[in-house]
Records
---
Amino acid sequence: MKKRLVQTIIVLAALAVILASILVVRAITTESLQPEVTSVDPLGVDDGAVQRLSEAIQIPTISPADYSPEELAPFEELHAFLEASYPRVHAELQREVVGPCSLLYTWPGKDEEARPAVLMSHLDVVPVSQQELPDWTHPPFSGAVADGFIWGRGALDVKVGVLGILEAAEALLEKGDAPQHTFYFAFGCDEEIGGSRGAKKVAELLQERDINPVYVLDEGLVITEGIMPGVDRPVALIGVAEKGFWTLTLTVRAEGGHSSMPPSKTAIGILAGAIHRVESSPMKPYLNEPARQMFESLAAEMPFGMRVVFANLWLFEPLLIAQLVGAPQTNASVRTTAAPTIFNAGTRENVLPQTAQARINFRVAPGQTIEDVEDYLRAVIDDDRVEISRSAGGFTSDPSPTSSIETAAFEHVRRTTREIFGEETIVIPGLMVGGTDSRWFTEIADDVYRFLPTQLSAEDTKRIHGVDERVSVENYHKIIRYYARLIISSEPQK
Ligand SMILES: [Zn+2]
């Protein structure tokens, strides 16, 4: 009996040693994916660049809800401003107005046989809430240049991209440089309301012309510090996919009547119960492909203890997920989220409502579909009195495909980022929880990346769509240099 116990202990100890060895060996042999580069300064930035961005911010190109002449007037003004500000670009590139207000530039490359690339950004901005207006340090459409920043709506999202790309092109043309392959610049005018009359039309036009870009780079994730545990270097996240966007409507119908003799559950009570069940039983979290790629790419950059975890996700995945679901920001990257955003019922205090209706906005993680979401919703609500329907009209999109990180294009983006932002910057793939205009380009290109080459603090990130949106002059110069370097060193591919 005693002998058997000793044998069992020996076997268990041996297994523990083997397991520990596997974990440690995997951690030690995980290699950094970061390419070695030397810093590059492709061009000096023109002194007028800051002033031009400031002036562009002063044109209030708020997304056109109805595409009415009044709403489109600022876009025409911006088009004219760009034409006057970038004379070489407008002399040497082809410029087309697509749909009501979007722009497409074509810059022919030296090698006409090579596949083109597309750089994207958007011309429109979100409106400023009247309530928040007094909180702005500088008025939102002032384009104030103060304290080392350019202030105003669109400074980050994303006139900085439009103007940054055009500054880069203008400066390269002035030097007599041209890209090795053709570049398109696609600037939609209704990104903030879904892009269906902007970027979508541009993508359709390119498709009609049989254009199959080797890569597309749109706005998206940025460079931040302090968001990854155990990593004190700046981390650049390149969005290789974005979540889907679906809104489902819940409706409860009931008999009306006087509120003096109510049934045990009114329409409001039934619907509130359903919403409560949805919030208390969220969809199961899992490591979607972009999230897995992100952690695996980060493993080699982490201190040893963390590296053991990240290099062995086959074992530690449940532990990691338990950590990630603890905060809204990281929770959103590992599951389809549900947010009840609209709740309507009742008209009078003494009348029982005949209907109660709510809308739940879902952000669908890669690997799941709207059908999965509907199945989940029926199962968790489990109440025939609650009708579930897909909201008519409105914006919807499925999760995007996940772009490869094994391509020359991804490597080009990674290398350029380190060349401009320094070798301490770790460049890894990531998942965008919001949406971009690039969704319209996944039909014509396999490799679609979402990255705005700018370094932001967590505090500055909150200014996007919020109060006191601003970009630092230093960051803006880097954005211009980044696009210049990306364009000029992009190698032709057939
Ligand atoms: Zn944007």
---
Amino acid sequence: MEFDVITIFPEILKSYLAEAQIGRAIRKKLIKINIHNLRDYTSDRHKTTDDIPYGGGAGMIMKIEPIFKNIQALLKKQKKRSKTRIILLSAKGQLYNQKKATQLTKKYDRLIFICGRYEGVDERVAQKLVDEEISIGPYVLSGGELGALIIIDSVTRLLPGVLGNQASLKDESYNNDQTEYPQYTRPEKFQDWSVPKVLLSGNPKLISQWRKSKQKNFKTLIKE
Ligand SMILES: C[S@@+](CC[C@H](N)C(=O)[O-])C[C@H]1O[C@@H](n2cnc3c(N)ncnc32)[C@H](O)[C@@H]1O
């Protein structure tokens, strides 16, 4: 899987992507991540990526031209466009979830992310340049970079060979709308707090029943 991130703050992403599972996946060549500085696609000497909003209002809006040029450059050598998904991170996009992560993993081999900043992005980017807008949650962030990282992370760990133990994915939270069961490790007793006895029973059937009883439907986690 290849990921491209278009941003005006390339440095924000680098340390997260260099470490742990993502870093390892890059070194094992299971994924490739290209970070693009949008300012490289501007044509004025100030490398301007934003401008004032038509109709007035607070803040600045990201301009369409540099984003258009950046995408054009990325797609130039692209053979099969249908396997590439261009995603605008946006608070008004479709809410991201585990199902979406699985879909992206299965359907595409390249994801291109556009990270907004300031008051947002010229609407023509959403209308004309991207395949979809994704929101990573019902709240407003300062920029799309965290959203891009979240999608890259959640998609990468679903790819074959990324996790040391593929079985980790089986019982994980949000498969079948359920959260994972509670997990414990040594010591058996810490302060006055003991591990549930059933987990020490050695009885797989009882353990499995107990675990099932502790899983929650994710809908019960949403509180308005
Ligand atoms: C400060 S926000 C703009 C918020 C916009 N004025 C609004 O009210 O929806 C700047 C950028 O952060 C990103 N962003 C903010 N919240 C997000 C979310 N929940 N999911 C994904 N991206 C988000 C988007 O790329 C957005 O263009």
---
Amino acid sequence: MNFEIINPGTTKELLGAVNKLQKEKFRFGAGCTDLLMELKKKPEDGLTIINLSQVKDSSFSGIKKSAKGMRLGAMFTAHKIVVNEEIKNAFNVLHESAHNLASTQIRQVATVGGNLCTASPSGDIACALVALDATCEMLSTTGKRREINIKEFFIGVRTTAIGKNEVLYGIAVPANEKKTKTIHSNFIKIGTRRSMECSVVSLAYHIQVNEEGVIIKAGVSIGASAPTVRFAEEACDFLIGKKFKAISQKEKEEFAEKVLSYASPITDIRATSWYRKEVLFNISKSIFE
Ligand SMILES: Cc1cc2nc3c(=O)[nH]c(=O)nc-3n(C[C@H](O)[C@H](O)[C@H](O)COP(=O)(O)OP(=O)(O)OC[C@H]3O[C@@H](n4cnc5c(N)ncnc54)[C@H](O)[C@@H]3O)c2cc1C
């Protein structure tokens, strides 16, 4: 591999480098766990890599909590998610997605931004953030910030809505509803083996229940089942107003059918389309047990 590396130390230098390279071929490198594998498989000539890991900016790499929710800088790592107790308590789905990602070593450097921007249909953190109805914040070379809902972020296989003059700067997760008493929040990952393996199928859910046991907000998304991670909107709507603990067998199946309607899985070396659908249907039903 032969490429030039630029190491901006501040956000200003980063935006300056992006601006300068507008007519050239360049890529961002965050933890580089995906990027280096990709460039090894498909080397590119005349490429410049903008190394994001030296940028000193707490908005780009830290976490900030407020009444509105939580904002993670794009450079926040999977490891930092795993060890954060508040994330575990309030957004367990995100904790579990990071906890199950790759290996200890990879989690130390793999970033939230990298997981989103690589736009893999089997991105685990991406799947959890879709269930959490997150917002992606981009920063352009002019210094302008642009926010879009994460559902609009993934526009195709490994394609995102980020412009060439933009970098993903942060991800905001809305706070849980004030009336929430109980949260059913988890990430189910089915792989051919537990570690160092991308999902064969995954399901993320974050379901908020009030004092009466009634579902007041639901986020459900699927991974490795369609060209992009998908939000199962009809399945979420179906749950609103129902008592979580009183969902009947028939309703569980109806819910699972609705989740499945968002899936169009492929057959590949790891699993057939038929297998992926069967598994997705069964894990969808299982979340109420
Ligand atoms: C052995 C192995 C196992 C793995 N297992 C899993 C797994 O279980 N689950 C899973 O989800 N993934 C897995 N992955 C994939 C990878 O580790 C994750 O997707 C990781 O989160 C990528 O983060 P990164 O910081 O390393 O991204 P990088 O490799 O640095 O970047 C990925 C892409 O995003 C772009 N990018 C990065 N940051 C930004 C930004 N701020 N703005 C704009 N573009 C940006 C880069 O240019 C590149 O195109 C695995 C990878 C390996 C090698």
